Amino acid sequence: MSALPRSAGLWTRRDGMLSFVDQRFSALTSDCLTKAGWHPGRNVPFPPDLAAELRAAGHELLPSARGFLAEFGGLTVAHRHLKSADRLDHFVIDGLRAARGRDPAWIRDYERRTRERALTPIGEASGGYLIMCMAPGGTVYGGYDDVLLKFGLTGDDTLEALCTGRQYSEIA
Questions:
Q1: If we measure between CA atoms, which residue out of 24, 60, 19 comes closest to residue 36?
Q2: Largest CA distance in the chain
Q3: Three-class SS of 96-163
Q4: C-alpha to C-alpha distance for 57 and 98, rounded to whole angstroms
Q5: What is the distance between the alpha carbons of residues 101 and 48, in angstroms, rounded to a whole number?
Q6: Smallest Cα–Cα separation from 50: which of 76, 36, 77, 68?
Q7: Are 91 and 164 a contacting pair, CB within 8 Å?
Q8: pLDDT tens per residue, the chain (172 residues)?
């Protein structure tokens, strides 16, 4: 390790693995993200066909989603299952994977129901059944079929909710 990250936080050793506890997250969420390959200052390139795939489906790569995907894109994050603490679940931050093979009408319906002008697919949860989308202001929604959930007000808030098992609010 050459240099400590510039963001506020501290390095800890947990279960024999070095983890960075970023002040944006709880120790549990920082640990989940670190184990998935995240580190402060992470910046990954977008898949070359991401913007084209989104455009073809009638979506745009919103600035809020662009920043989130640059830092967290490509991560598969394991966490305790929401309903069974002795089981693991995972979510994937991958806009291309979330957009491919989906009926764009579902996301347009989610836009209508949330009253957001646009939603960008940013990942999947619940074994790929649930698509996660980010709004222009950073709010993250998750949907499958007619069910629509609000995960968090920001990407960071959403990661915290997913990793800690915090309940999500359902949108009618």
A1: 19
A2: 49
A3: HHHHCCCCHHHHHHHHHHHCCCCCEEEEEEHHHCEEEEECCCCCEEEEECCEEEEEECCHHHHHHHHH
A4: 11
A5: 17
A6: 68
A7: no
A8: 334 444 445 556 656 655 556 678 998 898 899 999 998 889 999 888 898 999 998 899 999 999 999 999 999 998 776 666 677 888 999 999 998 888 899 999 999 999 999 999 999 998 888 999 999 999 999 999 899 999 999 999 999 999 988 888 899 7
Q: Which residue has the tokens 């764009």?
A: 104
- Chain position carrying tokens 């698509």: 131
145-154 CB contacts, 8 Å cutoff, 24+ apart: 145/106, 148/110, 148/113, 148/114, 150/114
Residue in the block written with tokens 């960075």: 20
Strand partners, 144: 147
pTM: 0.85
